[in-house]
Specification:
Helix content is 36%, strand content 21%. It has 14 helices and 15 strands. With 380 residues, the chain is of the alpha/beta class.
């Protein structure tokens, strides 16, 4: 989707902007727009393998679940896998040098695609607010903004847990823990936009559970193949931490024949790898916070993000924090759209003068405000 340049900054300020909130996730990207439209797509981009595949598919690029359905005909990429481009440098995320440009192109195409799903009107400025990991570097933020340059006329990036808190009006005395696919982000809320030093990003999330589950299944059942998609679906439906309340048996194929397989032990062990890093991060953040406000944070810990839905997570966190005093841990009821909804609310509440200022600037180097973004003038 190529944005047609708006006529002028003066003219754009007279039109009511179209706002989009976006959660640019490792495995799923969700968007909500000011027209009420919302959409979600898997964060995966596919390209036909050869001219035969191109003729059969009739397109040069596919997105989301359609990529997985047609994957035998495609070369495909998850541009943000393992936190790459959003939080880690590509090399740290396991992306080889020759594939970096492909991942960057895929990120740009993905953003264009998901914005098109909410039907932005023509000849209207489109403003975006995009959630990023709490401790994303300036380099990562700049990349996200550059990748969004064709989809938005102006864009800002905000910490994902802050977007959740803003959307839920939890702006004071709360600790938001966003357990995503690639990272876990922690953000204390105390009445103003938190500094980078106050926040924390831990490079572990649901994708690491999926990989560990596949590894453990290979050990336990070497003759039963398990794809990444199958591992994700089993985790999302049956994942748990703590004691197993019941046996988890799922239908898998053994030598091509369907069979019920007990995956309780490997699934429990895989999900457990999230527990210690998340708990230690919470302890560290609270321990370093102003001692007069530590009790308030302990009394209002909100878990959000897809991996927070793993059964029993809030219970094991509550138990681990018992020595610190009274503790209350709850889970968000809208893990799919919580970040996007908060980002949209922030964008719609942003003073028009601020958006106009972004439209008139080439860059903004601030990193500790929700306006930490770069002004975008879309190319034709």
């Amino acid at each position: 989707m190529n944005r047609t340049p708006i006529a002028s900054d003066t003219e754009s300020s007279k039109k009511k902007p179209f706002c989009v909130g976006m959660d640019l996730g490792t495995f799923k990207t969700s968007v909500i727009a000011s027209n009420g439209n919302r959409a979600v797509a898997q964060s995966i981009v596919g390209f036909p393998k050869d001219h035969i595949a191109r003729a059969a598919l009739g397109r040069d690029v596919l997105f989301g679940s359609e990529v997985l359905d047609k994957r035998l005909s495609l070369d495909y990429v998850r541009p943000f896998q393992n936190g790459g481009l959003k939080y880690l440098d590509p090399a740290e995320a396991g992306v080889s040098g020759e594939l970096v440009d492909l991942h960057k192109d895929a990120a740009r195409l993905l953003i264009n695609h998901v914005v098109s799903l909410v039907a932005p009107p023509k000849d209207t400025p489109v403003f975006g607010v995009i959630g990023v990991p709490s401790r994303a570097s300036i380099k990562n933020k700049r990349f996200i903004i550059e990748a969004a340059s064709q989809a938005f006329d102006a864009v800002i990036v905000v910490a994902e847990p802050f977007a959740v808190a803003y959307g839920m009006n939890l702006l004071v005395d709360a600790l938001v823990v966003d357990i995503g696919a690639g990272t876990t982000d922690l953000c204390p809320m105390y009445g103003s936009y938190p500094t980078d030093e106050d926040q924390m990003t831990v490079p572990v999330g649901g994708s690491h559970v999926d990989e560990e589950f596949i590894r453990l299944m290979k050990e336990a059942y070497p003759n039963i193949p398990l794809s990444l998609r199958m591992a994700q679906q089993i985790k999302e439906k049956h994942g748990f931490v703590g004691e197993a309340l019941e046996q988890v048996c799922v239908p898998l194929r053994v030598g091509g024949l369907p069979q019920q397989v007990d995956v309780t032990a490997p699934l429990q062990a895989a999900c457990k790898i999230l527990v210690e890093p998340v708990i230690e991060a919470i302890k560290s953040l609270i321990g370093d916070f102003d001692p007069e406000f530590q009790t308030s944070l302990l009394g209002n810990i909100l878990l959000c993000g897809g991996s927070s839905q793993i059964q029993g997570f809030e219970k094991v966190i509550r138990k681990a924090l018992e020595p610190y005093g009274a503790c209350e841990v709850t889970r968000s009821n809208d893990c799919m759209f919580a970040v996007a909804a908060g980002a949209l609310r922030l964008g719609m509440n942003m003073p028009q003068d601020h958006w106009n200022e972004l439209l008139g600037k080439e860059s903004d180097q601030k990193t500790n405000t929700p306006s930490a973004g770069v002004r975008i003038r879309a190319a034709a």
